[in-house]
Amino acid sequence: MFKRLNKYIIFLGTTKKSTIKDIANVLGITPSAVSKALSNHPRISEKTKADVIQVAKNLNYQPNHLASALRKGKSNLVGLIIPKANSHFFSSVLQNIEEILNEKGYSVIISQSNESYKKECESIDALLFTQVDGIIASLANETLNFSYYEKIKAKGIPLILFDRGENDLQVDYVGIDDYQSSHMIVDHLVEQGCKRIAHIAGYRHTRIFKNRIIGYVDALEKHHLPIENDLLLEGSLTLEDGRQKMEALLKLPNRPDAVYAASDFAALGALQVLKENKIRMPEDIALVGFGNEPFTSFVSPSISTINQYSEEIGRLAAEAFLYRIKNPKKKVSLNKMILNAELIVRESSNKNGY
Amino acid sequence: MFKRLNKYIIFLGTTKKSTIKDIANVLGITPSAVSKALSNHPRISEKTKADVIQVAKNLNYQPNHLASALRKGKSNLVGLIIPKANSHFFSSVLQNIEEILNEKGYSVIISQSNESYKKECESIDALLFTQVDGIIASLANETLNFSYYEKIKAKGIPLILFDRGENDLQVDYVGIDDYQSSHMIVDHLVEQGCKRIAHIAGYRHTRIFKNRIIGYVDALEKHHLPIENDLLLEGSLTLEDGRQKMEALLKLPNRPDAVYAASDFAALGALQVLKENKIRMPEDIALVGFGNEPFTSFVSPSISTINQYSEEIGRLAAEAFLYRIKNPKKKVSLNKMILNAELIVRESSNKNGY
DNA sequence: TGTTTTTGTTCAAACGATTGAACAAATGGT
DNA sequence: ACCATTTGTTCAATCGTTTGAACAAAAACA
Where are the beta strands (DSSP E) in B43-171? Predict the structure, then answer.
């Protein structure tokens, strides 16, 4: 009894964290009884449970997650790999993933690839090392080789891709229908009377950008519009890239009357160049972007764009992970979740007023 | 020998992860020798080290971080609590913190408070539970009570605050000089000939916003300008809040000739209202924001603002953490790191052309 | 050759929580 | 009153790695 009290007092006085062993000592029972009491084991009496909870509170007991994770073989950590946190799309996805997974007791470890393949591989290694229970990722632009992702699959933990995915990797995927989105944009521009529609595109090796390009080409064909190489420019889709591509387009002997940029940042670059050249939007050239970054709504003219439902994508990715964790055996099913995107028509492409 | 080979083959065939024990079995040595070989212990022979590394590679050995973290009492995880990931400032800070800490072998667990006190407390609990080695945080707007943060200090792990900090908590802090920034803004506006300068402010209970308010008031006094209650409006500083405050200012019998908004989002709201009312910037009303969000440079007119050096803040916060980890005993020193901010003058407040 | 030092490795106890099996005591059925 | 069941708890092994102490063998020194 004296020993118990003594221990108790010591622990009140110090900062040292208490363990189930300390609780056990105070109550004169074993650590395993404490562990079972805390996890509400049916064989533990209500009285003991109450006592344990009380003492745990007194000792300011905090379970050691590492110990339990080690024993259970489950860390309750999820890795999230994104190209860049400071884009509205990715940070919004991050926000939703974090929210949903937190509710289910998971913590999210964030890792940015900065669009670099090397950094992406390092991120994967670091996450696997940290024993994450799964990884949710969007590929870097640079990434062409997926063997590193096979490594994740080999570990037997769930891998969910979103936005920048890849068909070859047989894993769950959440994204929008890029092919269909291009059709919506071209249809809209044709409806506005445009006849020469340019596309500031992303690099074709990234699946989503390839699909946007194919959608663009197919949609032009559908409308019996000519497909000109000069009007299809692949690039990194940054603001600066958008500026350069727009300048190139303006130098053409036969200017386009519409520009569809595969990212809002590129669209913004194009918009700046158009304004600098006093070219009116949408009268002279109509402009459409992609992604619904917040700034598209408040620049002047506001930019028409595609809403990617980033919140929805984050939610679905998180739920896909949770589903995989719950059903570890099920091999197939689920997989691709393709959302229908929404075209938001704004000033930059609306010739009819409203 | 047979047993060894057998084990070896089994492990090549299955996905099951290998441990130091497996390596030990293959080589016929003990796990502790393997552990020491891997950590380059001086007492282990070069030959053994080479063998261990070779076998580790063959078996595709990945150390179990959980086990080593448990044993060492160090998780190499750092918690980052931010109000919202989808603001350029915070995601940029995040980016830099992640980059620097990754280099040093730390992973970053992200947690968003969504400006909610309750969520912030939950985040802290979750992070402490995960046994993070330290926490870097920026307080939610709602947070007035810091007892939860005391909990972190009580655990004995480093706590670093940035941007939204608090003097009462005796911890390291990284941020800009808000008081001084207000002075720079007011000085600039006065120089532009403005005489009635309004301030769309944040809530006074948050230290940074309070300092901006005091700086604003002191600067007005310095220039012998009247301080009018109608011109100082506290709010949440969202875009919508900025709109409302600007509308209120326009309804005044005696309109201001300059508006200083304590956030770029509020400044943007104000800008929209001014444009809708065909009020010219900077001729009729000059406008200055705060934070250098990217959009400030490409809206029209571009918005003058304060550059908070988000990358620098992230870097310093990460380094402060690393310093504390390296020097656990040192009680005082270091603490407040206050950066001098930079005023970026753009169209919205520049009457002189350029 | 005998003693000390160095070198390379093993031993064993951690780190803190979990869990099935074992066991004693209390309860129930007949 | 005897056996079966239920209840509450302890036992002991385990998760994978780390680390100081211990120990034997080899090397160095006298």
Answer: 77-82, 107-112, 134-137, 159-162
